[in-house]
Design a protein that fits this description.
The chain is an alpha+beta fold. Helix content is about 25%, strand content about 35%.
């Protein structure tokens, strides 16, 4: 983890300062023409107006002025002047251990234009575990990875041994341990689950939240049991006592939630029955698609039904997730579930075409279209290009419309091409035009 942090930080420094040099240490590589300095701080002295000096080990000091801009990664908005820095940010600058500096164009003045502080530790940390002791303004928690960590606890954050907590920590310059900036406990987690149960739209959503609750409780208790067993083996009496309380607290919170879950289910069951009566199902053939307005027209026993399709609609082709533009007129919808009042579809399942031969599915980019031979050559990300043959039975579509091979252009993106590996004849070809250059 430390290695990954070091690599990431180096990349940020190079990109942020645009030093252009080699990134060598101040002691070894600095020359009169080099504007970029990366070194270890020996001392920082900056007055209230922003004027002062940054002393570097093995190098000449660097001057700073009111116009010098500072950046502490992930802590303060980038490139603030001294006047724009908060008190905490100024502490980070004055207590810095390593810096990356960009000098002004006149390097002989050794005046800093930009200063980036290199944090000695990851400035943000995430801790999940059980409080095992409290000593003054610090708490010690046994984390889920069986390691202990001590954290500063600000006033107003009440905790007790045995509390299961998630803590977001921030390490300030010169402090030996992280300081808690946010704390979540099991009571807040239980309240969140209860809110989700209350807000569930329909029985299926309610049971989904209920299943998540049971799974979270099981995993939670498994972690606590594992930590307690390890603490007993290590004869860590303090941890054993705290974990015993944590197990009791967790089980009590879960039992209360189960009771509330039963009460909520009984209270809103009548509304589920009313909602269930609003849903309808149809099966039929797509006759028309409107991608812009998100509509699909389905022919059902001589009649036509128009369904709305939104981002909440689950569209499946066979068992594969798709979108509205992945459908086309002529596709058969084996099941569509929709709200009979709003006509908004919740689920659309398109029957996957029967495959009697060995089929291959690929994606890529159209390299060549041969109208005379009715073939399309597709470049894949991995592997050789593939040339498929378009027949009268091939379903060729773009943007929810059936198109001809003549409308397929070189450079088009192939979202999906399905073809028989023995004949290379395409069963379907779904393409989309790439965005204009300059747009993502």
């Amino acid at each position: 983890m430390k290695i990954m942090w070091t690599i990431l930080l180096a990349v940020v420094l190079l990109a942020g300062l645009v030093l252009g040099g080699s990134g060598a240490s101040a002691a070894e590589e600095e020359t009169e023409l080099c504007r970029g300095i990366f070194g270890t701080v020996a001392g920082v002295s900056i007055d209230d107006e922003g004027a002062g000096t940054i002393d570097l080990e093995g190098a000449l000091p660097v001057q700073v002025e009111a116009a010098t801009r500072y950046h502490v990664p992930t802590i303060v908005p980038p490139w603030q002047t001294w006047a724009g820095l908060s008190d905490d940010a100024r502490i980070l600058v004055q207590g810095s251990v390593r810096v990356s500096i960009l000098l002004t164009e006149d390097t002989s003045q050794r005046m800093a234009m930009k200063v980036m502080i290199v944090p000695q530790y990851p400035v943000r940390s995430h801790h999940v575990g059980v409080v095992i002791s409290i000593d003054g303004d610090t708490i010690t928690i046994l984390q889920h990875n069986e390691k202990e960590v001590t954290i500063f606890l600000p006033e107003g954050m009440d905790m007790a041994p045995g509390d299961v907590v998630t803590i977001i920590g921030q390490r300030l310059a010169g402090e030996p341990r992280p300081r808690a900036v946010a704390v979540h406990n099991i009571k807040q987690l239980a309240h969140r689950f209860q809110s989700h149960l209350n807000d569930a739209q329909g029985e299926a959503a309610f049971e989904h939240v209920s299943a998540l609750l049971d799974r979270a409780h099981n995993r939670h208790m498994e972690m606590l049991d594992r930590l307690k067993a390890r603490a007993e083996i290590q004869a860590n009496d303090r941890a054993v006592e705290a974990l015993g309380k944590a197990i009791q607290n967790a089980q009590r919170a879960y039992d209360n939630l189960v009771q509330r879950r039963t009460e909520i289910r009984d209270r809103i069951r009548d509304s589920w029955d009313e909602l269930r009566g609003r849903w309808a199902e149809i099966a039929g053939t797509i006759t028309e698609l409107n991608i812009e307005y998100g509509n699909v027209v389905v022919a059902v026993e001589g009649d036509e039904v128009t369904l709305g399709v939104s981002g909440a609609t689950r569209v499946l082709v066979g068992t594969s997730l798709s979108e509205l533009d992945g459908l086309a007129p002529g596709d058969f919808i084996s099941r569509a579930v929709y709200d009979a009042e709003t006509m908004e579809a919740a689920l659309i399942i398109v029957r996957a075409p029967a495959m009697t031969a060995e089929w291959q599915v690929i994606t890529g980019v159209v390299r060549e279209v041969n109208l005379e031979e009715q073939t399309v050559t597709i470049i894949r990300a991995v592997g050789d290009p593939v040339t498929i043959t378009i027949t009268g039975e091939t379903r060729t579509a773009m943007g929810g419309r059936i198109i001809t091979l003549g409308q397929v252009k070189d450079g088009y993106w192939v979202k999906q091409a399905v073809y028989a590996t023995d004949t290379m004849e395409a069963q379907s070809l779904l393409v989309t035009a790439p965005p204009p250059r300059g747009r993502s």
